[in-house]
Amino acid sequence: MMVAEQKPTGLIARLPNVRGRYSENASLGEYTWFRVGGPAEALFKPADANDLIDFLARKAIDIPVTVIGMGSNLLVRDGGVPGVVIRLGKEFAHVSTDGTKVTAGAGALDMNVALTAEQDSIAGLEFLSGIPGTIGGALRMNGGAYGSEIKDILVSAQAVDAGGVLHDLTVNDMGFGYRHSDIAEDWIFTQATFNGRREAQSEISRRMGQIKAAREATQPLRMATGGSTFANPENGHAWELIEQAGCRGLTRGGAMMSDKHCNFMINTGEATAADLEGLAEDVHSRVLETTSVDLKWEIRCIGVAPEGRGTEEFS
Questions:
Q1: Which helix (H) or strand (E) holds 169?
Q2: Residues 146-177: tens digit of each pLDDT
Q3: Which residue among 72, 121, 129, 228 is the active-site one?
Q4: Active site (annotated) includes residue 185
Q5: Does one domain contain both 255 and 185?
Q6: Residue 167 maps to which CATH number?
Q7: Is 30 a catalytic residue?
Q8: Buried b / exposed e along 175-202 (16+ C-beta atoms within 10 A)
C-alpha cells in the first residue's frame, strides 16, 4: 500500500523548492547563547550559496526574512519571529588560506578563523579569537576587540541582496564605522577574504593566549549571556557608566547584569526574553538618568513580544 506524500502546510507551502531544509515552527532559543525565545514561523538552512540565491530570487516579496548566525549577541522575543529565519550552517563554515590571505564563509566561527590563521603563521587575525560569533555577524557590525576591527583586515566580501543578486564588495563599499556597516539590513553575507601578515606562529599563539586569559578573567564566559549589552560610547566604557548608575548585579525575573562584568547580561536559568529585554531597558534608563549618556545596544533583538509590542530591533 502506497502512502501519499505529505504536502507542506502553512508558510512553507508558499516557499520555493530548495535543496536545503525547511522546518516549521522551529525553536530558536536553542540557537542563541541566551537560550530563550519563541519559534521561527519557518526556518531555512540553505544547502549552499547558490541555494540561498535561488531561494531569495523566487521567494514572494511579502514574506519577511531574518538572518541569524551563532546567536552570540541575539535575543529572540518570546512571541517568536514571523516569516522565514535563515541560518547558515556548516556549508558556509569553510576556512582556507592562500599566502597571507584567509577566506572564510559567513557561517565560520570567528575563533576558527583565528585558529586557522595561527596554524598557517598568519598574524593580524588574533583579535577574532576574542569575538564570540560568526564572520557574517562580524562583517555586519564591524566586529572588533583588543584594538583591532574587521575593517583593518578585510580585503573583500560577498553578499546576496533581497532579490537574490550576488554582490562583490570591497572594504570601501562597506561603510564601516564603530560597530556598524552601511550594508543594507536585508543583504546576506556569504563569505569574506582577509589579509594578514607573516609572523612566527609562537608569537601569534602568545597573543591569542593573552586574549584568552583576559576574557576568562573579566567575562562570564560560562554563563548564558549575549556578550556586551551596550556599545562603548565615544571616549568611554559602557561598563563604567552601568557601574556608576548602580546596575551591577541588577535583576529582573531570571535576568541579571553580571557581577563579573556589568555590561554582560545573563540568564540565570529561568529568564524569559521579556525579562532580559526589560532588564536592558532598565539599565539604559538608569544610565541615561544618572549620566545623560544614551547607550546604544550591541545586542540584536528580533521577533514579537507576546503582548504585541512589535518587531522592531534595538536601535
A1: strand 166-170
A2: 999 999 999 999 999 999 999 999 999 999 99
A3: 228
A4: no
A5: no
A6: 3.30.465.10
A7: no
A8: ebeebebebeeebbbbbbbbbbeebeee
